[in-house]
Structure formats: C-alpha cells, structure tokens
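Subject: for your reference before the review

Hello V.,

The reviewers asked for a structural picture of the protein, and I figured it would be easier to keep everything in one thread rather than splitting it across files. Below is the amino acid sequence we used in the manuscript, unchanged from the supplementary table.
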Amino acid sequence: MNFLMLLKPHFYISKGTTVNGSISSDDSASIDGTINGDVTSHGEIIIEKNGIINGDVLAKNIVVKGKIKGNIYCNGKVLMSKKGEVHGHIYAGEATIDKESVLKGGMAQLHAKEADEITEQKEAAVEATAAALANKPVVDETPQSWF
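And here is what came back from the structure prediction:
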C-alpha cells in the first residue's frame, strides 16, 4: 500500500499563510503556504503544490509537490511528484523522483541512526532559540495620542 494513502495531516498551513520561524511537531502536516524556517516532524509532511519551505525539512516521510529551498533529511521515503522542486540535498532512506520534478542538489542514502542524530541536533537548536527568546525583555511602548 502506498504510504501517501495513510497520511492524515494533523496540522495544516493554508495557501496565503506565511510562517516566519521554525516549526517542530510530533504530528504529520500538510503545507500549502510559506514557511521561512526549518520544519521538523516525527510524522509525515506533504508540501502541496503552492507550498514553499525556505529551510531544511526533517520528517519520517516527505512528499514534495511544491518547493523546498533547503535540505531534506528523511529516514523513510521521499517522493518528489510532478512539478515538485528541491533546491538542496536529499538525505533519505529511499527516494522517488518524478521525471518532471526539479532537484538542484545531490542525494545520499540516510540510515536510521544518522536521521536520529540529525533530529536531536535540530531539536536542541530550536529549544535553545526558544529559551533565548523567552528571556528577552519586552519593550514597553508609551501610548500615543493623535490629539
């Protein structure tokens, strides 16, 4: 059975939505908007035809119908469907690339142990950034009067 049929996204970034920052989730996702940052998921990710990710993508299985401007790290399967684009490298256990898709980078087989190490490094970086932002003071602004 095709793994695409099993994918039921738990979160969805809709067309016209832009996210500035990295996303980390245990859930599967369907992305039809733009994400300016890395995307990490312990589930599956579908980048829909209008979806754009400007950053690295790390997930169990990945389907690319849109664009990724970054590297893919996947310990399962990567499927680049018709008109899908990856401007970066693909590190995956298995990859299928449609003849009408675009890959501007290289490919290498990624073993499960290597994928786990990369996941841990990415999650540590996201947590460090969140901790740094949590300690940053919020500047109070004085109210302005137009009269």
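For the response letter, the relevant points are probably these. The chain has a mean pLDDT of 80. The radius of gyration is 17 Å.

Happy to draft the paragraph if you're swamped.

O.
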